[in-house]
Amino acid sequence: QESKLWGGRFAEATDGLVELFNASVSFDQRLAEQDIRGSLAHVAMLGKQGILQADEVKRISDGLRGVLAEIRAGTFEWRLDREDVHMNVEAALRDRIGPVAGKLHTARSRNDQVAVDFRLFTKEAALDLADQTRDLRRVMLAEAEKHLQDEVIVPGYTHLQVAQPILLSHWFMAYVAMLERDEGRLRDAAARMDESPLGSSALAGTPWPIDRHATAAALGFARPTANSLDGVGSRDFALEFLSAGAILGAHLSRLSEELILYSTFEFGFLTLPDSHTTGSSIMPQKKNPDVAELARGKAGRLFGNLMGLLTVVKGTPLAYNKDLQEDKEGVFDSYDTLSIVLRLYAEMLPKTVWHADVTKAAAARGYSTATDLADFLARGGVPFREAHEVVGGLVGLASRSGRQLWELEDGELRAAHPLLSADVARSLTVEESVKSRQSFGGTAPGRVREAVNAAKAALS
Ligand code: ARG
């Protein structure tokens, strides 16, 4: 058991399969930078508190920096028999500087060590994703502004049935609003996890005269965690990260679905760039929206990572249990997945071409201005419910005879209601419909311009 840092009480060597099952080094080596940062802060504090001699602190710190340099250079040998990142680093330190390395773990446990490493990682990941979310928001805002110049009109849908015409810019601004909240959720999570568990030790704290405020500050945390059991036993910081990531993933998945749908031959609203689509190995004509489809499908793993960790945590008694080693891979995966999808969309959206003639024609179909006709009657004093009934009858008449509302005869319209006429029906253009929706947050060009300006101000 010489390679084990905990081998003292064991007489028999660890079973090979157990070693494989138990080890986390294959994935937690990703925490090496955070692990060594944590150790450097810890050992410096031990020196300041008079727990270690200055020369011991120096030898350990120099040794840790040497190990870090090896890891960065890619020459470090990660050993499965050393189980995890923490024991690989510590054992390598011992190989380098001898038995004094054993003093590093004074007043510390792997339980608070892994908790502090993982919080450092997750906090940085949350802030980085927040920045990337902001980048995509900036891109979508620029698209909104670009299409506002020509006031491009698209169909707005409910139930995926044409509902009312809207500005394409208004559609973009809906995603800008969602992404703003996504960024906020990530930053909120980062702020709440900004506490250092280091010094919680195994679970109960430590008899050593440590300074947890000093290590928290040295590691850039706002403060130490207030309860040692909570410090080593809680993973809701990771759950919040995964939850914010899952919601962001759901938004990106909805966006993907719309892009896929609108790029079909049947819709023909937009053309995705060649650089972000792929072909078929058998059908020469194909141009498939693989990026958007993968981005839609990635929601599965993002939700899975959240559900997975919720399930791991739910039945574990306080404080640390080895179950918690299952906390890391999902966080790494959600971080990597969202990073690439956010970047891809930030590149793809500005290269996507919208076909304004097609979208406008589609926006006019499906009796999308029927509400406008009902509003016209209501403005003339007809109760809205009655107006709704009258226009519903006209839509039925028109659809049975394969016509649009503006193709109805003057007599048919007057018979439905004396306030109606062919002139009125013809004035119901999609442009007028959009222009009329002046309510705050509505799709009228002036309102969308306001929204764009407010979003620009929020971003600067
Ligand atoms: N590799 C472990 C993990 O990721 C580190 C903590 C181990 N602590 C323990 N008491 N076995 O959770």
UniProtKB/TrEMBL annotation:
One of its GO terms (biological process) is L-arginine biosynthetic process via ornithine. InterPro entries: Arg_succ_lyase_C, Argininosuccinate_lyase, Fumarase/histidase_N, Fumarate_lyase_CS, Fumarate_lyase_fam, Fumarate_lyase_N, L-Aspartase-like. It is found in: Cytoplasm. Residues 367-435 form the Argininosuccinate lyase C-terminal domain. One of its GO terms (molecular function) is argininosuccinate lyase activity. Its EC number is 4.3.2.1. Pfam families: ASL_C2, Lyase_1. The keyword Cytoplasm applies. CDD domains: Argininosuccinate_lyase. NCBIfam families: argH. Belongs to the lyase 1 family. Argininosuccinate lyase subfamily. This is Argininosuccinate lyase.
